[in-house]
C-alpha cells in the first residue's frame, strides 16, 4: 500500500478533528475593549477603569503556564488514571489502524493517534468547563447581589459566594476573596481570575468590579443588570443553536460520508478500495475527495464562525 495516499487520508482526518477541536476566537475582548462612553474631562480614567486589555496582556511563557494551570484544573483528580485511560484508547486505535496504514512505523502511528486524541480530550474538557461555568455563574451573581443587598462589603460578599457555591466557580470566588483579604492588588486579583475563566461574561463581571472599586457606584444594581443581560444572552444563544441545529447536523453528516464510504469500501469492495489507494489512475479520486472535503469544511467553519460571533 502506498504511504502517501493513506497518509493523506489519515492526516486529513486528523487535521479536521484538530480544526474542530480549537475553533478560532480571534478577539474575545472585542466588546470589552470598545471605547465605552465617558464624560468629557474624565474619559481617560473611565476608560482605564472599564478596560481589561492591560490586565490580560501576557508573555508567551505566561500564556503557556496559564493554559497548563487551567488544564490541570479541568482534568481534576485522578490524573494518572485518566492519562492511562487515554493511552489505552490510543493503543486500541493504533492497533485498529494498522491494517489501514501498514507502511506507517508503529511508534509514529501511535504518537499521531495519541496527539489527535489528546487534542480532542482537551477540547472536550474545555467544553464541559464552559457549560458548568454558564450554569454556575448566574447563581454566583445572584448570591453576590443578595450579600451586597444585606449590607456586606464587596470583599465579604465575594467570600460569601465562595463559601456558599460549589464547583470551580465557587472555588475561584473563594480564592478571589482570600487574595483580596490578604491585601493583593485588585487588578492582580482580577487578572488571575480572568485567566482562570477566559469567558466574556466573566470579563464583564471583572469590569464591573473594577469600575466600582475605582469609580464607585451602585454595584448591586449594576450586577443585577449584568445578570439580566447574561440571561438574555443565554436565551439568544439557545435560540440561535436551535435554529442552526439542522444545518450543523447536516454539515457533520455530509463531512463524514466520504470517509465512512472509503472505510466501508475497504471491506465491501476491496478491488475499488485498492484502485483508489494503490493505482496511480485512482489517486486523483482520492485527492479530489480530500481537497473538496477540506475546502467544504473550511467554508462551513467560516460560516459557523460568523454566526457564533
Describe the model.
- The chain has one domain.
- The chain starts with a helix and ends with a helix.
- The protein has 309 residues and is mainly α.
- The protein contains 13 helices and no strands.
- It has helices at residues 3-21, 43-50, 53-56, 60-75, 79-97, 106-149, 154-164, 167-181, 186-196, 200-215, 219-268, 270-278, 283-308.
- Helices cover 80% and strands 0% of the residues.
Produce a short descriptive summary.
The chain has 309 residues and is mostly helical.
Helix content: over 70%
Q: How large, in whole angstroms, is the Cα Rg?
A: 25 Å
For the biggest sheet, the summary is: none
H/E order of the elements? HHHHHHHHHHHHH
Q: Report the structural category.
A: mainly alpha
Question: Which of globular, elongated, flat, extended, rod-shaped describes the shape?
Answer: elongated
> Quick check: average pLDDT?
78
Q: In oligomeric terms, what are we looking at?
A: single chain
User: What is the domain tally?
Assistant: 1
Q: Would you identify the regions where 5 or more consecutive residues have pLDDT less than 50?
A: 18-46
Total helices: the number is 13
Please count the beta strands (DSSP E, at least 2 residues each).
Answer: 0
Amino acid at each position: 500500500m502506498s504511504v502517501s495516499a493513506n497518509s493523506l487520508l489519515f492526516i486529513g482526518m486528523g487535521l479536521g478533528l484538530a480544526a474542530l477541536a480549537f475553533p478560532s476566537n480571534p478577539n474575545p475582548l472585542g466588546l470589552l475593549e470598545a471605547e465605552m462612553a465617558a464624560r468629557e474631562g474624565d474619559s481617560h480614567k473611565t476608560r482605564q477603569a472599564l478596560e481589561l486589555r492591560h490586565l490580560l496582556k501576557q508573555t508567551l511563557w505566561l500564556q503557556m503556564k496559564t493554559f497548563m494551570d487551567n488544564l490541570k484544573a479541568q482534568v481534576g483528580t485522578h490524573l494518572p488514571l485518566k492519562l492511562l485511560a487515554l493511552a489505552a484508547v490510543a493503543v486500541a486505535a493504533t492497533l485498529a489502524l494498522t491494517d489501514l496504514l501498514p507502511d506507517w512505523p508503529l511508534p509514529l502511528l501511535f504518537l499521531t493517534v495519541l496527539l489527535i486524541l489528546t487534542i480532542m480530550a482537551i477540547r472536550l474538557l474545555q467544553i464541559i468547563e464552559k457549560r458548568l461555568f454558564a450554569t454556575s455563574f448566574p447563581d454566583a451573581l445572584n448570591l453576590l447581589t443578595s450579600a451586597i443587598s444585606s449590607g456586606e462589603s464587596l470583599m465579604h460578599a465575594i467570600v460569601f459566594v465562595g463559601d456558599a457555591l460549589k464547583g470551580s466557580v465557587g472555588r475561584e470566588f473563594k480564592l478571589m476573596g482570600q487574595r483580596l483579604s490578604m491585601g493583593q492588588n485588585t487588578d492582580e486579583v482580577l487578572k488571575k481570575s480572568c485567566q482562570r475563566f477566559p469567558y466574556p461574561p466573566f470579563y464583564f463581571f471583572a469590569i464591573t468590579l473594577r469600575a466600582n472599586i475605582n469609580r464607585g457606584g451602585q454595584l448591586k444594581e449594576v450586577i443585577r443588570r449584568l445578570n439580566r443581560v447574561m440571561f438574555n444572552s443565554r436565551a439568544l444563544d439557545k435560540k440561535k443553536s436551535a435554529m442552526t441545529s439542522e444545518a450543523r447536523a447536516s454539515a457533520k453528516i455530509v463531512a463524514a460520508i466520504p470517509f465512512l464510504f472509503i472505510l466501508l469500501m475497504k471491506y465491501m469492495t476491496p478491488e475499488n478500495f485498492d484502485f483508489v489507494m494503490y493505482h496511480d489512475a485512482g489517486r486523483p479520486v482520492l485527492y479530489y475527495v480530500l481537497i473538496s472535503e477540506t475546502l467544504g469544511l473550511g467554508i462551513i467553519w467560516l460560516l459557523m464562525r460568523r454566526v457564533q460571533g
